[in-house]
Amino acid sequence: MNYKTLVQKVEREREAKQNIIMAEYITLTDIATLISNSEITSFLDDNRDGVADVGLFDSIVTTCSDMTDAFVSSIYTVPFTGNIPALIKTATLYFVAESLYARRLTPDEKNPFKKTADLFRTTLSKIGAGELPIDASVARAFDSIVYVALYSRLNDTAL
């Protein structure tokens, strides 16, 4: 590989890294519909200065968005862009709320969002397995293929 080709390859890789779409399905305003602003600040204030720590909320949202994507990535192209399915946004919202409480070491039985988040995990798992559709307007990444094999007892091979 000559120098010019190598430089072009490196530039293409650098460009691809810059174009990676980060999945962040909710905002601070969205989480404020479930948790009061004062509680949000206390959940995100690790150094106890009365102000939410910089970047912490974005990090939690990115992690929870990635978790949501992981459930359905076997069938759908993720991250979702444009019109994000309501189920994905809502599941991510509850995952973030659950995570905020978990950061303060709230036991699962006292976390007000644990049961709902678990229901979303179950639903998203079924969607990822192809048992449920995510939304009528969201196309799958590929068409499902069903393979049926019939086996012969005579020589133990497929027909």
Main traits of this protein?
159 residues; mainly alpha; 6 helices; elongated
Tell me the layout of helices and strands:
Elements (H helix, E strand, L loop, with lengths): L2 H16 L9 H4 L5 H7 L12 H17 L13 H18 L10 H15 L31
What does this structure look like?
This protein is mostly helical. It contains six helices and no strands. It has one domain (25-159). It is 48% helix and 0% strand. Helix 4 (56-72) packs across helix 5 (86-103) and helix 5 crosses helix 6 (114-128). It is elongated, with a radius of gyration of 22 Å. The N and C termini lie far apart (49 Å).
What does this entry show, briefly?
This protein has 159 residues and is mostly helical.
> Describe the biggest sheet?
none
Helix content: 40-55%
Order of helices and strands: HHHHHH
Strand content: under 5%
**How many distinct beta strands?**
0
